[in-house]
Amino acid sequence: MTSELSNFAARLREFIHSEGRAPRGPDFQIQNDIGDSCNSSLRDDGRLNPLALELFALQFAHNTAYRKICEARGVSPKTVKHWTRIPAVPTSAFKELDLTCLPPHQRATVFHSSGTTEQRPSRHFHNAESLAVYETSLWSWFRIHLLSDKLKLGLQPSATPVGVQASACGFPGEEHELAILTPPPIRVPHSSLVHMFDVVRRELGAPDSSFMGELTGDGSWAVNFQAAAAALRRACKRQSPLVLLGTAFSFVHLLDSLAEQNVHLQLPARSRVMETGGYKGRSRRLPKAELHALITQHLGVPPSHIVCEYGMSELSSQAYDGAIPSSGFRVPGSGSAFRFPCWARAQIISPETGHEVAERETGLICVFDLANVFSVMAVQTEDLAARRADGFDLIGRAEHVEPRGCSLMVA
Amino acid sequence: MNLPNYFLADLPPEATLTAAMIGEACQTLKRNREQYVAKRSTQSLVNTIAGVAETWLQPEFPIRKLALDNGPRETRFSRATITTGLDNFFKQLTEENLNALLVQELGHPQRLDAMAANSAEQKLNRATMASGPEFLVHIAAGNIPNPALMSIVLGLLVRSAQFVKCASGTSFLSRLFAHSIYEADPKLGACLEIAEWRGGHAVLEGALFAETDCVTATGSDETLAAIRAKLPLKTRFLGYGHRVSFGCVTSGALAGFNAKKVVARAATDIVAWNQLGCLSPHVIYVEHGGGVSAEHFAEMLADELKRREEVEPRGELSTEHAAAIASRRGFYEVRAAHSPDTRMWCSKNSTAWTVVYEADGRFQTSCLNRFVYVKGASDLTNMLHGADSVRGKVSTVGLAAPEDKVEELATQLARWGVTRVCPLGQMQNPPLLWRHDGRPALGDLVTWTDWEQS
């Protein structure tokens, strides 16, 4: 059943690899606007559309739960001529239904949505092929936003497929440290975020001990302050740049702990931070600017080297709100707009009318992610954002108490 | 018309309130109360309030016109919704009803004027007098205007100086009501202050709470807990927290041609103040075995809401509230595509109204703004079983049942813990005598002095 999907997945991975190297090659570092380079490919509707329609037809055919939703809307591959008309499924549907093209025996991995208040999580199923697409997608866009300046130091552009010869993508010739503030994947196998961090760790050739989070008795995530502080100090002592990854709430925990001990570090130049995700009741909430100011204050990482990521377990691609300088990537006219790679599109949809909003207006983020090959490409989130060119400014989660009730999984 | 700057809420938006301003306002209010209302007769207060209400019902009353003309912009309710909501409120404020309220609450219409005794008390040789707080603070949640207006009326009756703190952006109708009182009776108006700020402002609220001897508050349970924690022990606190309501349609009410009428009443309750009050229904339960199934009732209700939207539109929503509706619709659309146990009807190209039918009888909290659930149940016991998750939190049940069944059902609901049972169609229109959350309206405000004569 999935040979066509496998074929699509293989082509997409090849495409993503080519995006990473084609127009830039060894001169990658000279190109300083990744956004523009993507404009030459799938940023063009004419090139995206046939791929999106092809994938929609495959998912309509192979994803029973999705097909039912489409049919209820009276939509089928025959009636859809443009990717914007492909029915999006709400993220809440991932909690209710098996939204996958994979038969049960192939669902080797499942990612759950996080959050302590949810009655039941979203479930996004993967097999080896599906994970390979996820990994290719995440690494390509992560590398561009977090590591592209490293290329100046001799880092090879990722010509190798992800997962192969991981060290080829590392920092040859330069000592560096990686610190990840989440628990390791073995403790949280259903976290798509931690899986992503593990892919990054492998690609950078860093050890398993890079994970500095723990799972507590009640299932929540905590930072091992001792391990984290040791990694921070080590990086300072060796003067090797630190790549520090974590959720917003893990940073709040870490910064609170540093503040308690009155610790102010100056991480080596070119250290960088990636923070992601909401707070979900796991720590006190901090406005983004305040969190970043504290990171600068306690870790010595300047705002230019702090990047935010927007992602979710229901997707296979992520958006970033900027990049470490020298990639120079910013959406024109916007200081911190999030942007997906060109194989995914975000549309900001008016909740009132269901149509795309005008520039700068606010609506719900709807993502069309070609890398969601084996599940559903079009995902309607509950996150609000303001439209900024082909990116968006994240505003936050729409107030929404999930309805109670029996799950359709048993129906 | 332009309103004079009598109240803090009249200041231009750029004006910044300070603790000193609040403190000064409190002192002025207390002084004015002592001078102007502390010794005023109940009857003159009743006359003034009823007179103000009467003017509000006159179409040409300038403040009413201002409320209806600017209300949609200031409150996001449509003109028709504001008209209905205000008219229902002011129609209740008659001398007769106010006197009935005094008797219900205090046992005697002159209880606030002097030592008074009803016949039972006379036999026992005793008399009592009730006194209101010197300085009453109302913290108004602001989702709908009526609770704040009612609080002001109650405070006037007990002769308190009053400070109404509105949530930011929600003072408009309270302000206009206060202006109408000021216009009718400047001395009474001078015992009233209206201000708005975002709740939790420690400096302003600290200044306010230091002066008051009684605080009433409506809002979420968290908001109430936060306010209570800031009050001195001696300050009386009357909190009205999160409550939900539902409709209950028995099979007997759906016989013959009644179904359409019952559906229209349910729609009235959903449309009133856009379903935003604690008294508005989240769910309409429909008993099996009537002339109309729950599912068909839902479909009829959708038709009726569509019709109402044309005459009494819901008005614009913030993106956040529209997003809450859109996200919920997405959820139920998916369910409906996979199971006949869920169906959804909703307005096209807008979030104006939504009806979700679910065979599952468990109570669902709605995201409101005219989003309602219809659920089937075998009988009232079965409905209450479904609503078990909100037991103790239910304010009102709107009942549609044959006359010979109503008393039995009302008793069953009372035993289960419901604090108000009313006919469907009247849920968001409580009478003046209504006891908020089952608590005395004036009784909780006053302090008694008992006089045992011999």
What descriptors fit this protein?
heterodimer; A: 411 residues; alpha/beta; five-stranded mixed β-sheet; 31% helix; globular; disordered C terminus; B: 454 residues; seven-stranded mixed β-sheet; 16 helices
Cα Rg of chain B: 23 Å
Helix content of chain B: 40-55%
Whole-Å distance between the termini of chain B? Answer: 59 Å
Q: What is the number of helical segments of chain A per DSSP (H or I, 4+ residues)?
A: 10
Largest sheet composition of chain B? 7 strands, mixed
Shape of chain A: globular
Q: State the largest interface.
A: A-B, 34 and 31 residues
Number of helical segments of chain B?
16
Uncertain runs of chain B with pLDDT below 50, 5 residues or more? none
As a percent range, the share of strand residues of chain A is: 15-25%
Mean pLDDT of chain A: 84
Helix residue percentage of chain A: 25-40%
Please describe what this structure looks like.
The complex is a heterodimer of chains A (411) and B (454). With 411 residues, chain A is an alpha/beta fold. Helix content of chain A is 31%, strand content 17%. Chain A contains ten helices and 14 strands. Chain B has helices at residues 19-37, 42-56, 62-75, 79-92, 95-106, 119-123, 146-157, 172-184, 186-189, 202-209, 221-230, 258-271, 294-311, 319-338, 380-386, 403-416; strands spanning 126-131, 135-140, 161-166, 192-196, 214-218, 236-240, 244-249, 281-287, 342-346, 354-358, 371-377, 394-400, 420-423, 447-452. Chain B has a seven-stranded mixed β-sheet, sandwiched between helices. In chain B, strands 4-3-2-5-6 form a five-stranded parallel β-sheet, sandwiched between helices.
Helix and strand arrangement:
The complex is a heterodimer of chains A (411) and B (454).
Chain A: H1 3-21, H2 34-39, H3 45-62, H4 64-72, E1 89-90, H5 93-96, E2 109-112, E3 123-126, H6 128-147, E4 177-180, H7 192-203, E5 213-215, E6 221-223, H8 225-238, E7 242-247, H9 248-260, E8 272-276, H10 288-299, E9 306-310, E10 319-320, E11 344-349, E12 362-369, E13 378-388, E14 391-397
Parallel strand pairs in A: 1-13, 4-7, 7-8, 8-9
Antiparallel strand pairs in A: 2-3, 5-6, 9-10, 11-12, 12-13, 13-14
Chain B: H1 19-37, H2 42-56, H3 62-75, H4 79-92, H5 95-106, H6 119-123, E1 126-131, E2 135-140, H7 146-157, E3 161-166, H8 172-184, H9 186-189, E4 192-196, H10 202-209, E5 214-218, H11 221-230, E6 236-240, E7 244-249, H12 258-271, E8 281-287, H13 294-311, H14 319-338, E9 342-346, E10 354-358, E11 371-377, H15 380-386, E12 394-400, H16 403-416, E13 420-423, E14 447-452
Parallel strand pairs in B: 2-3, 2-5, 3-4, 5-6, 7-8, 7-12, 8-11, 10-11, 12-13
Antiparallel strand pairs in B: 1-14, 9-10
Helix pairs in contact in B: 1-10, 2-4, 3-4, 3-8, 12-13
